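Support request, please re-run this one:
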Amino acid sequence: MLSNTEILPTEDEVNTLKHALRVLNENEIIEAIQEKIDIPSSVNKAQLLKQFIISNYQKGGLEKEIFDILRVKAFNPELDLTDGFYLSLNQDAVKLTEIEIHKIVKEWNEKEDVEYESKIEILGFNDKLISFLVTKKIEKFVYDSQCQYSTKYTDDHQVVIEYHYNHDIVFFQTTNTVKYSSVKTVMQDFFKFLLNDEEIKLSIPKFTPRIEYKLKKDGWTVTSSPLHNISPTTLKLLDLFSELDKEENNFSHFECIDIKFDHENTGDSSLLAKVNSQSYDGGDLLATDDVKQIILNNRVILFAEFKITYIEEKGEDIVRYHSVLAGIQYDRKKRLRIYIKNNDLGLKRIVKQAYSDLKKVFIQNYSDDNLKNEEKIESLLGIQDENKEE
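Re-run finished. Output below.
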């Protein structure tokens, strides 16, 4: 029997729920609802679980929250990813209060002089970042061959975005390059509105590490670091990799398992067609002579995939170690993407935690112009500072 406050779902809602349950597998469904409803022990198969959910929902026995959770999980899976793209803002942030940012977002959502339909929601605000849920509505059409007419429908491009305003970094949580490009337009326009500056631009972060000149032991002769001959992008990535081998950052045992460089003749027009992949069976690729020589030849790292150990502190004197597979794609003209792969739902919480720490290490490393691991990089590449030889 339904209470006076309970409302039966519409046919559209029931059909959407059925569709969502077809998209999701059994583990994904259980993960989404296990803390919300009690699943009888007799419901021990995927089909029984789906029937249980549909039947109870049709009768009004499940809250609409369950419907919303399953719908989001099925049709917006990228809202729960350990993957994403990074952009930098070409202007220092203006410090705003939470009340001020809510006011500006409200004004943006009410704007009518915009060429597209979008909505921005604030998910979180603290002294380091603001997180948004950004939706851009894309108008599409489908042709019905039976009635010979087209039907218009709306496809939502929805992405979680973090604005790390202390470091001028904007993170797009998605694997979908179409959604990334689509929502990027919304965010660039929003930042122009937020900062009242039409020159605002979101661009691929540029790696420009500062390499200091040094005095020789005679006290007056200036000498350059041997790292001056290495690509700045490659240097900065090697510095990041070194940071992922430090327990203080909750990571250790960095091992590069695949790496790609730009073509040695980067002046040619079709750069992507000339990418060379250097792959070896087992071991850290950065320790191989071939890869070291490519780096010394001033080549740019475009992609690296690596194994790292994530250190989880469970409590006082309780530490767990988890091996994760991560990667970075860097193309100065197209994208900067960082990800952690995960095919084990049982490790989902750990992997999300690891990605949060990986993101933190990257952002801190990017925002520091200085190399934090200069001596380690020199040792890795087998080169020596002339000043140390004297």
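The longest strand covers residues 149-164. The chain has three domains: 11-75, 83-203, 214-389.
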